[in-house]
Amino acid sequence: MGFTIGGIRDMRPGSRRRGRTSECTTVAEYTGLWGWDVVPGARAARGSGGRNECSCGAADCAAPGAHPLPHATAVPAGATLDDAVAAWEQVPGAAVLLPVGASFDVLEVAEQAGRCALVRLERMGLPLGPVIATPHGRAQFFVAPGAAARLPQLLYRMGWDDADLDLRCLGPGDHITAPPSDLGGLGPVRWLRPPTLDTAGHPPHARLLLGTLAYAAHRAGG
Predict the structure, then answer these.
(1) How many percent of the chain have pLDDT more than 70?
(2) pTM
(3) Lowest CB count within 10 Å: 20, 69, 115, 189, which one?
């Protein structure tokens, strides 16, 4: 494959160093400022046959550029820039992934539904955490941990349990790609609502957002 975790082989050394510095600064911001764990992730590039090839090296990779690197060292919450540099020196060019389930869970809907819900939630003055938009058209809302386990019960209580909703919740064992990393060779992930000191460590409970998100997802699906 002409692709390695360090990036495309013909990258100039100066560009590679600048990229590493940017990645390490991002990791240090997530760990030191927002209090999140960070995991080095695989990246994907377009192969000679027109399909994405994963930097993990597996020819049959089920999620090219969208999973943690095996045996890579996680960078824990509270880590410094020096810690980030030391970790990323082992896997230069790795995507920045955030493990779900400890600091936050994630409610995910189609991006258009998420944008509509975000406007309504802001108008209602409800508390909001960070929100991500992915290059494959999804919106990811950070909510308090434990939402994934309670989602069926919450939907039932709100009367949405029988609806065919394009809505899911990510929890323990899942990972999301963090801005500005590339997701699966499709392009960069970006913030719809960036984290702040108030929201990063205290995302809202899922029940506060779920009704609006379910309604927006239902309308988008209809």
Answers:
(1) 88
(2) 0.89
(3) 115
